[in-house]
Fold each of these.
Amino acid sequence: MAEEGGVVLAGSLAGEEGFTPEIGRTICARVAAGESLRRLCREPEMPHRTTVRRWANREPQFAEDLREAQREARFEQRRLDRELAAAKRARPRPEKGGSDSSYTPAVGEAICLRLANGESLIAIVRDADMPCYGTVYGWLKRHPEFEAAYVQARMIQADYFLDEAREVALGSTHETVWSDRLAFDTIRWMTARMAPKKYCERLVLDAEISARKAEAAGLGQRRLTVQVVDFSRGPNGEVLVAPPRNAEEEAGWERAYGKPYDGPR
């Protein structure tokens, strides 16, 4: 990695061969402090997430350090989530207006922007200055303009997930193919559910739509038919069905009595 005037040149970090123990420690330290790889790798001086995956596949010590950093971040996030939930419960509730009184177009726009950039709503509401999960859904019911922006953000998020699935596939190796397949299938499933007309397999979608239309059309036309039959044994020892329901059962009567079935005996 080249240096100029004591400053590390950023461009060398983005390449496949740009890994050094220093940049590995930097990434792990920031991940352990709570930053996601997605957000960290957006910075121009940092490598792409696919490059970080390849480094982890190629450098066993870096892979181990990164897993430990992610584990520490999860534990710390759970602790912070519990503290935040306790703080929210301890807040005095307003006498009027409820949680809706905190809604502003700026907060709604911030939520939608982060959704469009691939963040989950769970991750967004973890921030101390964001409302809780249920409050966001209350806003969707009470603010049509926020609901419209939210739906649009989810559609854009589906495009983001499509690109993310591609990155997972490109970064996969023989050692990580099974875990990457799980991640790929999960992202693909979410993408198809969020934008079915755009990303769901056409044959599957058409078949499901046709089945639902046929089911809906036939709900008022279905009739239950019950047929009562009697089983007996003929003179030749063959089991006979009265009345016969098909040609084979008709033939059984002819073999037993030499004539077709002619009614109850």
Note: Strands lie at 3-4, 7-8, 230-233, 239-242.
Amino acid sequence: MENKNIMMFSNNSNKKNEQPKVKINLSLFDKILEIVGLVLLISYWFIIINSYSNLPDNVPTHFNGAGQPDGYGSKLSIFGLPVIGLFAFVLLTIFNKYPEKFTYSVQITDDNAKTQYILATRRNRIIKTIILILFIIIDFRTIEIAVGDSISLGSWFFLFVFCLFFIPVVFYVIKQNVD
């Protein structure tokens, strides 16, 4: 009898509360975000590949809180952020195909699933665009510093990063909880 109770408990805990699957058609805005992201990704690689031959052997690889370089490495390190950007872009694109697998701060029902999925996938599209914009700026400034055209990322950089990344995320989290 005791084993049967354990097995019943075990079987109940393995059941998942699956969220409804809903087909989402991309709006014009979502299509534009996808195209902008892809253009940014291709442009980013173009910039890095074309700049590589002009770089000195050592380039900044780390910056302090004031935006000044405090670590240097091989010029091959300039490919680090584009690789991460490509990986993030592909991963978020794949994730957006399965919004029913996301974790939401509200319970997903048949009534709210489409709205919540649209908001969540749009947020991810905006995040992947923001990631690429940030990485492009970081590498563009890194290249400028490496070739002697600048001495730091700039004092504005960290506030810019904070605003560019967190404001849209907070906006969509609030919007998902209101709608």
Note: The first strand starts at residue 58 and ends at 63.
Amino acid sequence: MDNAASEKSIIALDRWLQTPAGAYVRAWEQARLDALTADIFGFNAVQIGVPQIDALAASRMPNKWQAATRLSRRDELLLASGSRQIAVALDFEELPFASLSVDLIVLPHVLEFAAEPHQVLREVERVLIPEGQLIICGFNPASLWGVRQGLGRIVRSDFLPSAGEFISMPRLKDWLKLLNLGETRSHFGCYAPPCRTSAWLERFSMLENAGERWWPYLGAVYMVHAIKRVKGMRIIGPGWNKRSQKSTQAVPATNRKHRSIQED
């Protein structure tokens, strides 16, 4: 996927998020992100992509930025009002932040629509401080929605944005492990079947609790929480061979005194 195709796919995702199914996903992700980010402390937090979701709404960090490929009318109003700090990044593969400067990064549906998802993760690892935290949102291919998307590509009737390359949870964990980003918690949600109307999605709302209990890994959307681990370094000096010195045996002074007495 080149940069032009990635830009088109991001636009397609923006339109899909305005549909009833997209609103259903946004509601679940917003609630889960609010619960996660409220307990993450630091100074600098960055959300990359998908401005329809305010991933840092519950964050207590003083500095919060929204990185996007372009400014929408809504973003311009937020920037003018000062309610959100927006940093325009022309390319997510080259983030405009210094190395080791960010405490929290949120990637809502960025990797699956990026031209080079590995490079995006490398940039994220670069700007995160040691013990910095990363939250990734994505569509789960091992779900009813993933099966529907696979069948839709055959009959040319996609349910999700067609340009997305959905990443499975085990594959994503392998990518994170290579970059020393240790996965701490995973969350799954949106267990309703792939319905296009709000009425049908509400009818299957009872599946949320059942899905979390009986088939937790089959949710349509997943959320991964990872921490940047930096191994400690200890300087090890050369192994000097210290030989134990033999202590000299002291000569008793009484012998000399005893000899002098005998001579007298």
Note: The beta strands are 44-48, 63-68, 85-88, 102-108, 128-139, 181-189, 221-228.
Amino acid sequence: MSNGRISDHLRYMTVRILTSEQDNTSWTGAGTGFLYRFAREAEQVPLLVTNKHVIDGAVVIGLTFHITADNNENPAPGAGRLIAIGSSQLPIIRHPDPNVDLAAIALAPIIDHAVNHEGWHPFIKCLDKSNLPSDQMIGDFGALEDVVMVGYPTGIVDAVNNFPIVRRGITSTPYTTDYQGKQEFLADIPVYGGSSGSPIFIVNEGGYSTPNAFIMGGRFALIGVLYAGHTETVDGHIVAEPIPTNLMPVAKVKHMINLGLCIKSVLIEDLAAQIPGW
């Protein structure tokens, strides 16, 4: 890794997800996933977390990982490697609440396929429970906080370096309350197809304010997952709907108004109970 800055590590925590509704690699959909690890005692389970609607209906899923040649200590520079696997071969778990648009792909069979069938090692840098905001941190949040989203809007990626696109915004509703009574919040941030599943972070480097003081130092937390956006229809109605994943151009009869619906990150931990044998 280049240095200890938090922001430099963000570009290795996400994976672009490509999907095909046919048994081939003619990709028709794109979304974002991020690497997350569940751990208990000596057991660790790495997963790729995304939205249900990103992978629902996919026959083949394509994932591009950075390569590592030093036992996962550092990523090798370059475009990485694409793995295309039939969705039926991948253990996929879904949040038990049908109204929570979270799912995860188990990484163990993907890593095994890369290592034992293709002869290379994916670089896996996972987030985990320690990166979720603590109660104390949440209590320090103001009604307006700067946020960072990492992902692949409209499927865009720096293909030469396999880097995602990083964007800034603000919380549009207080994180300390539940938007519309759900464990969600709104973010004022550009929302496009391909952004579904993007992690939302608090990233403060150098200092940040709390209710009582300005703190010198850094602050980092995974606070949410983008899953939907508000759109304005041709007749002026505002509706919330899942962010489209389709890569093909379509005629527009509505447009995004750049208000993203985000699932609070605490709900990621609910996926652990869906892991077989956990």
Note: The chain has a mean pLDDT of 91.
